[in-house]
Amino acid sequence: MDETSQSRHAVHAYVDSAEQRDWERFGALLAEDVVYEMPQTRERIRGKSAFLQFNMEYPGDWHLRVRRVVADGRHAAAWIDARVGTGHQDACVWFEISDQGLISRIVDYWPEPYDPPSGREHLVERW
Amino acid sequence: MDETSQSRHAVHAYVDSAEQRDWERFGALLAEDVVYEMPQTRERIRGKSAFLQFNMEYPGDWHLRVRRVVADGRHAAAWIDARVGTGHQDACVWFEISDQGLISRIVDYWPEPYDPPSGREHLVERW
């Protein structure tokens, strides 16, 4: 398996094992010194153990589904459909993969809805 | 140039030509029927002409810099550092590339900062 295929496979397995709450499989995808960052809240988690705990403790009956995975060498990005109850949010996640094929860095964005600024109504349609 | 290289090249050229306000080069990267979506505001722009106008009219002295591009066949994603004056925001942009190598679909997210929820202070550091 080449680097790109390995990265693509790791990201699909990351989403799928989290959705399954298969924490053994999830943990096996992560480098020991994995770093997880959420730039919107300026939060960082260091190490597999803390990051596993963060996911295991994450509140709510959340569900994840891959909208798209793009892999390129040791980099990948995932566009994820996340649902909690009737709520829905997309996530954009950036991955770095180690030379052992393990996920070593994750940068996670959770864009929230907002009202469009005025001045571009002549160009856009709303849904 | 293979599909992945073509997609990677198109996305770099998209950011660079927008930053340069080189609208002729920017427009040459786009399919005539390009569709541009901003899911956070549920806005959609159809067609090269309207999308060019949207970019040309976009207010502020904005500047774009690629943080990362991930290309994979006819899909790509760009993680962009956007600045207006002293303000800074990251963007996550998803691309589809036509079989002619033109950008045919763009989905653009602009995640905004927010306060972290409580309950995970034992796992995270702030920056």
TrEMBL record, chains A, B:
Gene3D superfamilies: 3.10.450.50. It comes from the Bacteria. InterPro entries: NTF2-like_dom_sf, SnoaL-like. Coiled coil: none annotated. Residues 11-105 form the SnoaL-like domain. This is SnoaL-like domain-containing protein. It comes from Planobispora siamensis.
